[in-house]
Amino acid sequence: MKKIITSASLAALGVASVQAAYAPGLSPQERSKLWTISATLRGFYDDNYLTQTKTQKRDSWGLELSPSLGVNIALDQTLIGFSYQYGMRYYEDRQKNSADHSHQIDFKLNHAFTERYKLSVTDNFVAAQEPQIIDPSGVTTTPLRTEGNNIRNTARIAFDAEVTPILELGVAYGNTVYDYDQRGPGSRSALLDRVEHLPELNARWKVMPNTVGLLGYQYSIVNHGSNDSLDQNTQFGAPFVDPEVRDSTSHFVFVGVDRTFTSQLSGQARVGAQFTDYPDALPGSPDSSTGPYADANATWKYNPGSYLQLGVKHMRNQTDVAFTFSGTPTLDQESTSVYGVINHRLAPRLAGSFLGQYQHSTFKGGNADGEVDHLVMAGVNFSYQVNAFLSADAGYNYDRLDSDLAGRSYTRNRVYLGLRASY
């Protein structure tokens, strides 16, 4: 959801129709095209593009260009998809390195061995600066913008088997790698470079035609891999602190339900517990924790082209805060994220959308233990279809971080106006 707030809107151009024999997850428009290309050109104003405190923030006018390419090959039992999006943002305020460049690459492979046995493989690679693009999981690890070519790659493979008409079993494995450009003691690399493993098992039971119950288990392994000291004061003679002291393993156990109430209203919920251990924690740091886990959302499609979605997610997650003073480091944070989006068709050619998210995060361990971040993100967008080949959009985004930690709070306002062309 957060990614929608800041990423470019896209218009599609496609040729070469294909008959999509097996195309799960594709829209009718995507089913009719082998490949699509798109592009957006926008002008914008950002009053705090470095996400700094009030006394240090810098503003800038700028230009954004974002072309993309997508390919979907639908065969009898297999769907292969690929997309690439390039982003360039030019800031007139910056004397050197005035343009940021981002890359997003997606790959997917869905294969149905039979109607009962299915395989799914996905991979998402990004090189970016904005936190909503680097970490779009629904819970924000770092609310601050990070300069440089910061890389995240998320891969997942899943196999689902229909054992009986009412029972389905699934097994999956996910892997996420983070590699930040900034180096040195206390740098983004020291704080956030890591590899995350997430094997999972689930059983789905079709209770009624419109209701599916779920029992699930996930095992999370987080390994930090930077060679830089976690403590920024190491450069002034403080002892070296290995980022591995924040490594963790977590067991997620949960129950859930997916329910279709009507043709317009559906929802899903996952509720359980997260049990976390810190095998390499320093003396004086907690070596384990237990907390709730929840992930739920509901969608209401109240009119053609119009819908409302609300959701909430609660879990422990990594953090960009380690040391506020000397002592032991902060290990992670416990976050609750509440979000919503409404997309409304105002007229046949005019659509408007509003997106909002509030996140409450409590730091765990170290001198920051118990301190809180309050993060608010909101955005409004209007899109007008001039004709079949040209559309225009305009919007406003607002970010606000109120932190108990000194020198961390900020506000950010962005406005943009642009064109989207298709042929």
Could you provide a short overview of the structure?
Helix content is 4%, strand content 60%. With 423 residues, it is mostly beta strands.
Question: How would you explain this protein's 3D organization?
Answer:
With 423 residues, the protein is mainly beta. It has a single domain, classed as Porin. Helices cover 4% and strands 60% of the residues. It has four helices and 19 strands. The protein has an 18-stranded antiparallel beta barrel. The two termini are 28 Å apart.
Instruction: Please give the CATH architecture.
Output: Beta Barrel
The H/E string reads: HEHEEEEEHEEHEEEEEEEEEEE
- Uncertain residue segments: 1-20
CATH class reads Mainly Beta
Name the helicity range.
Answer: under 10%
Can you count the beta strands? Answer: 19
Specify the overall morphology: globular
Helical segment count: 4
Oligomer: single chain
Descriptive terms for the model:
423 residues; mainly beta; Porin; 18-stranded antiparallel β-barrel
Protein topology:
Elements: H1 2-6, E1 13-15, H2 28-31, E2 35-46, E3 60-74, E4 78-91, E5 99-112, E6 117-128, H3 131-134, E7 150-164, E8 167-179, H4 188-192, E9 194-208, E10 211-224, E11 248-260, E12 265-277, E13 288-303, E14 306-317, E15 332-347, E16 350-364, E17 372-387, E18 390-403, E19 410-421
